[in-house]
């Protein structure tokens, strides 16, 4: 009985925090291309910095939720990169035990001062109304892996790769 309640709780929380993807899919193609670029950046930085898969997924969830509530002008493509850095930083603060310097989150093509990244983090937090506790597929994976006692590194790693591959096409 407890297990059924736990899954129901996860599903309820997921539906309230992960909304907004349909609205974004109806936007122009520029924002969809910018989103794919941001996801590529987040996944690359995840690998370079050794972040957990859940950190990258949470970051993309924040990105999608932000983009579903606010628009970014085409001529401000730098803002998408700043947004992806801020979302990755916020996700790392929630999921990681060791945090890199904000400057380590920047890429060669764009350099932002820490104060600028922090202001963007605050904009993301305010836009998402400080609702940062997202339920991701990793919440379900951990539950079922323990339930079926299948916590092998290969199985969990393969599941993580498949899960991250799906965020590109959403």
UniProtKB/TrEMBL annotation:
The GO terms this record gives for MF are: cyclin-dependent protein serine/threonine kinase regulator activity
Q: Which SMART domains match?
A: CYCLIN
Give the top-rank taxon of the lineage listed in the UniProt record for this protein. Eukaryota
UniProt key word Cell cycle: yes
List, alphabetically, the InterPro entries matched: Cyclin, Cyclin-like_dom, Cyclin-like_sf, Cyclin_N, Cyclins_cyclin-box
The record's section on CDD domains has:
CYCLIN_AtCycD-like_rpt1
Gene Ontology BP term (one): cell division
What's a Pfam family this protein contains?
A: Cyclin_N
Q: Which Gene3D superfamilies match?
A: Cyclin-like
Where the record annotates domain Cyclin-like, the positions are: 40-126
Q: Supply one GO CC term from the record.
A: cyclin-dependent protein kinase holoenzyme complex
Query: What keywords are annotated for this sequence in UniProt?
Result: Cell cycle, Cell division, Cyclin
Regarding protein family, the annotation reads: Belongs to the cyclin family. Cyclin D subfamily.
Name listed for the protein in its UniProt record: Cyclin-like domain-containing protein
Q: Which organism is it from?
A: Erythranthe guttata (Yellow monkey flower)
């Amino acid at each position: 009985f407890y297990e059924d309640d736990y899954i129901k709780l996860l599903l309820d929380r997921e539906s309230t925090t992960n909304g907004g993807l349909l609205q974004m899919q109806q936007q122009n193609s520029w924002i969809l291309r910018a989103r794919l670029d941001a996801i590529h950046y987040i996944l690359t930085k995840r690998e370079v910095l050794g972040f957990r898969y859940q950190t990258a997924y949470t970051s993309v969830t924040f990105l999608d939720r932000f983009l579903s509530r606010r628009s970014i002008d085409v001529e401000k493509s730098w803002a998408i990169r700043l947004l992806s850095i801020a979302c990755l930083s916020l996700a790392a603060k929630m999921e990681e035990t060791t945090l890199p310097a904000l400057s380590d989150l920047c890429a060669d093509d764009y350099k932002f001062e820490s104060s600028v990244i922090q202001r963007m983090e605050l904009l993301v937090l305010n836009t998402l109304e400080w609702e940062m506790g997202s339920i991701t597929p990793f919440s379900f994976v951990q539950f079922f892996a323990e339930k079926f006692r299948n916590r092998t590194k290969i199985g969990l790693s393969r599941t993580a790769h498949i899960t991250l591959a799906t965020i590109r096409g959403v």
